[in-house]
Structures are given as C-alpha cells and as structure tokens.
Amino acid sequence: MSKTASKTAANSQRNPADHLKQHRFKPGQSGNPRGRPKKVVDVEEKALENAEKALEKLITLMGSADEKVALQAAQQVLDRAVGKATQPTADVTSSHEEKLRELEDRYEVATAANEDHKAA
User: Fold this and answer.
1) What pLDDT is recorded for position 52?
2) 96 with 78: CB under 8 angstroms?
3) What is the pTM of this model?
4) 7, 17, 30, 112 from 22: Cα distances, Å
C-alpha cells in the first residue's frame, strides 16, 4: 500500500472533529469567563440628562434666519409638547386650544430660562 493510500485510510477512520478537541471547554470551565460586557452608558439616562439642553437648542434654532431650520425646530418642539398631528374625525378644537395654551406657557418658561442661560 502506498503512503497516500495509508494516509487516506487512517483519515477516514478518524473523527473529523478530533483536531478540535484541544480547543473545547473543559468541564466546569466557562466559555465566557468575564461575562457579558457592561453597558458603557445607559442611553436613556444620558438622554434625560441632556433633554433640557436639547430643548433650549431647539428653541434657539426656532429663531434661525434659515426658514427651513426654524420650521424644523418649531415642528420638533410642537411634536414633543403637543404630540404629532392626527387627522381628527370629530370637533376637537376645545382640547387643542387647551394644549396650545399649555404650550405657550411652556414656551414662555423655556424662553425665560434660555435668556437667563445666555445672560450667565
């Protein structure tokens, strides 16, 4: 029998995964010894910490000379304060008037805070 034939015969009797045995985890050994990596930063917490700053920026951008920027900023403020516009199926004018008054109050407070922030 030739060398090639004897190698082929020996290989056909071996389990194809035998060469991986040395890389398997030993009994009682973890596949991830350090565990799952911790979150670097809690995204929601970071967003809440910067929410006031973001609102101030939007209010500042509402006064932009670029009408597209001003409109986009105003839309973002309105969406967050009142909610996105829906297609009404009934007369809902009174509830919107109430929300608009509340929005005006919030805007005045935010504008005053923004002016105080600029003065400081």
Assistant:
1) 92
2) no
3) 0.39
4) 22, 10, 15, 69
